[in-house]
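Hey L., structure's done. Input below.
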Amino acid sequence: PISRMQSAYQFFCAFHVYQCDRPVTPEKFHNLVAQAVQIFRDCRKTNTDRGCVYSTESHQLATHLYASIYSVYIADWLKAFPREQIHFMMFEEHISDEISSINSICDFLGVSRFPVEYMRTYLEQHKVRNSLKDSARIPYMLPETTQLLREFFKPFLDDLVEMLGDKKWYWDLN
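Output:
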């Protein structure tokens, strides 16, 4: 969730989805993260986690803190669908081995796998080239930003790990 937030901030600023004070810097990102965390904590004084995640007030910040609170969304999906009907996959797993991840989706759906050579050709022809100019990137994240986010996300990731039964959902928090 931490790297997803940094990536989203860079993307939304670079493509002018939000007005961002340029140039993007680790200090500016930290200030926005601290603001987003405080808004969420203030919301939780009078609302549930779910109410705060879906609150439009928290959606106004380029950090998209709410979008990284996966456990709330997944709990809603699990209320609507049986667990065995949902296939969870980490994006990092997909990008590190696209063919294996597509095969796991085919297996989950009970459909035939695509021929490996076909997939290699298709994936090469449809490669996503989503890169930002260096001026749009945050060169690094301040240690205090990382610590603030680790502390903030820990209870939500605890919930996620319990829901999905796999510690991989801690990402790099532990």
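Residues 143-164 form the longest helix (22 residues). The CA atoms of residues 99 and 116 lie 7 Å apart.

-- N.
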